[in-house]
């Protein structure tokens, strides 16, 4: 931001008025958010896998954030894509293999949701066959889960938000719980 001195003779003192200058176009360093969305990975899931707070991941996901190499490699590990796919080259869309992988992940999530939600034996067999065929095409799809129907599911060894909340010792020793 620059300043302009106003030399109006009616003013007894020089006043500095701010002049807004157009923001320099910020440099885009990466496309992590774009790849994460195409891979169907939630920020919460990435947070669990990386052991990093969701707020920090949001900051890292901003394409103008200049990440360290270790942060970039951690994103590469979680997203399962080459580092080169995470970096921005002007005018370059995501590569065809990455686009196809993202589409296969979405199809597998749908198949898993059908398998989980349908009780008809014929539909179960078709969904199982489709699952096996997709895993033949891309073995890492065996680890993909269904779309979440209500909220984010947790495994049995994960704690919910209630476990993260702090309680005072006084609350634990109170005798008047009525």
Characterize the structure shown.
- With 178 residues, the chain is mostly helical.
- Among the domains are: 27-90, lambda repressor-like DNA-binding domains (434 Repressor (Amino-terminal Domain), Orthogonal Bundle), CATH 1.10.260.40; 95-146.
- Helix content is 49%, strand content 6%.
- The chain has helices spanning 32-39, 43-50, 54-61, 69-79, 83-86, 96-117, 121-137, 161-164, 169-173; strands spanning 2-6, 15-19.
- A two-stranded antiparallel ribbon has the order 1-2.
- A hairpin with an 8-residue loop joins strand 1 and strand 2.
- Helix 6 runs antiparallel to helix 7 (121-137).
- The longest helix is centred in the middle third of the chain and has 22 residues, at 96-117.
- It is flat, with a radius of gyration of 26 Å.
- The termini are far apart.
Give the strand order, joined by hyphens, for the main sheet. Answer: 1-2
As a percent range, the share of strand residues is 5-15%
User: How many alpha or pi helices?
Assistant: 9
Number of E-state strands: 2
Question: Which architecture of the domain at 27-90 would the CATH scheme give at its second level?
Answer: Orthogonal Bundle
The biggest beta sheet reads:
2 strands, antiparallel
Give the N-to-C terminal Cα separation.
Answer: 61 Å
CATH topology tier name of the domain at 27-90: 434 Repressor (Amino-terminal Domain)
């Amino acid at each position: 931001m620059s300043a302009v001195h106003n030399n109006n003779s009616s003013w007894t003192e020089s006043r500095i008025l701010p002049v807004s200058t157009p923001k320099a176009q910020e440099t885009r360093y990466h496309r992590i958010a774009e790849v994460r969305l195409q891979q169907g990975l939630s920020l919460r899931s990435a947070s669990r896998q990386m052991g990093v707070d969701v707020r920090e991941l949001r900051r890292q996901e901003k394409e103008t954030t200049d990440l360290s190499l270790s942060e970039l490699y951690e994103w590469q590990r979680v997203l399962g894509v080459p580092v080169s796919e995470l970096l921005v080259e002007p005018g370059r869309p995501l590569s065809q293999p990455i686009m196809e992988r993202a589409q296969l992940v979405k199809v597998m999530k749908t198949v898993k949701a059908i398998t989980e939600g349908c009780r008809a034996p014929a539909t179960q067999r078709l969904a199982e066959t489709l699952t096996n065929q997709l895993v033949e095409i891309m073995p890492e799809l065996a680890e993909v889960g269904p779309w979440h129907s209500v909220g984010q599911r947790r495994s049995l060894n994960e704690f919910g938000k209630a476990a993260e909340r702090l309680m005072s010792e006084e609350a634990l020793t109170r005798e008047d719980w009525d």
